[in-house]
């Protein structure tokens, strides 16, 4: 390619800034304003009470203040057995009358029995009546008509509230499912049925019946142990900090110990394979080939063959030779990678504030997620109540047609289908706004992805600017500017919002396509069209690769933006070609960094996890009295392990960004300067020493 033209006056990432990608910046600001407008429109139309409170058959919320249901907070299903039908999944509504009640039934009873005995046992009638339609008090009405008009349920079973709905109160006794210690019940229509029918019906509405008690226990565990979990995460933070600060002394040692460890283990493997191979000599059947015995499900058969051990030995020898050759030929690159890692640790030591920048990114992303979730809920609940005809007769032609409860009794539906009712079905609507709700949800998701990617980009650019100002300081640390992180953040926001938004936009488009492909794949799970599935699989794979590639390009483009202040496309192109000219160094540095940081994360999460395990299982004598008594000790333990990993990941992501920035600066330094007094190198003495005299020519990769 043609030689690059360098600015002879370049002295680091602070001077001569101008705004980049202003068009994209303007579009980004307009989109954010539009997003706020969408949130306001959704907020005006939406009503999250539709999610929080159950809705009865009359379209009223259970437990809403200043209505007749104010004290009736729980939804009761007249005939829960109907909830087992597949119609539930299609209409998302049980084809039975639903009422708001103040408490769930606590006994078995059928309408037939209660009506027969209402004269001499009025208390039973009064108890049963609270589960009938409001105002119904006519025990003389024939049972057939009562059940047809759904004035009362045909039966009630002992229930308890779950997710503000009455569900049969299940328990298992000697492995048999029971409700109030009974395994059968009368269904009020002359049949005796098994309790398992109730279970199926309850599962039709909700598959999480058992989760309630588990959920409560987990909640209790968190309530008791949150204090210790925070201490665990604090320890993880301290350990991560120590690991990073000490890397300048230990990076090389850790890496070489591991590499020689791997070589040693593979060497032992080769010896073991040879020993097994030699040991099987002369044993009958061991000289058969793998081809002779064909495919066996029991893999131990293959271990009786000499050929298997020979193959293992050959494979391990090849791997060993490859590793040793790579070490011989790439030794200089590995030394540069380790020196850059040590340099990164030094840079972080001078600019400690960078380690806490991920908190800013975390807060920004948390705001984006909250705003997106709230807007999505308001959009999803901004429909009007839709009522549909519900008929007991299976052949009624009006079933599932929309209706208006105000005028329903004047239509001829009740004449054609006696007992048909106009009941609440779901929230939706026919207006222009309601028709485009799906589009609004897509727009909501897209802008959310854009904003999250922007927050990540801003973090990467800010950190890159801070670390670049460290690299391009002639005398370290004397020439590092004051407040490097803060001034870098200011530069990124003031001059480069457009460029960061542009990079984030490209990534958001690809991510949205991936979300849509996942959605389509989920929808087409049931279909057996193998070609469609294959095509979707290919597309998903391609877009996954594209997203990975774009993330890599964007990250390096943001570093170039932080150093030079050029626009996104120029920075991306220059970063890409710079990396291509140093492709072996990039590969070696990436792998060495990934490995060391992965080792660090495992050390932090594993170390704190082991400590937490001994603490929560009360195996540390000193703290045995302090440890809380828990239902499940794995709840805080898993939280501590995952939390520690995330804390370490947060700190190490800063370090990875630091190493990447220093690497790009180092490549630029090599191409731009030649070590003469007129063009001195900016790199540290240790890097300079490793390069020696051989690689001081700027043309050398």
From TrEMBL:
It is a multi-pass membrane protein. InterPro entries: Choline_transptr-like. It holds the Pfam family Choline_transpo. The chain crosses the membrane at residues 21-44, 226-246, 253-271, 309-330, 350-374, 447-472, 493-517, 529-546, 595-616, 637-657. It is found in: Cell membrane. The keyword ATP-binding does not apply. One of its GO terms (cellular component) is plasma membrane. Keywords: Antiport, Cell membrane, Glycoprotein, Membrane, Transmembrane, Transmembrane helix, Transport. Choline transporter. Choline/H+ antiporter. Belongs to the CTL (choline transporter-like) family. This is Choline transporter-like protein. The lineage of its organism: Eukaryota, Metazoa, Chordata, Craniata, Vertebrata.
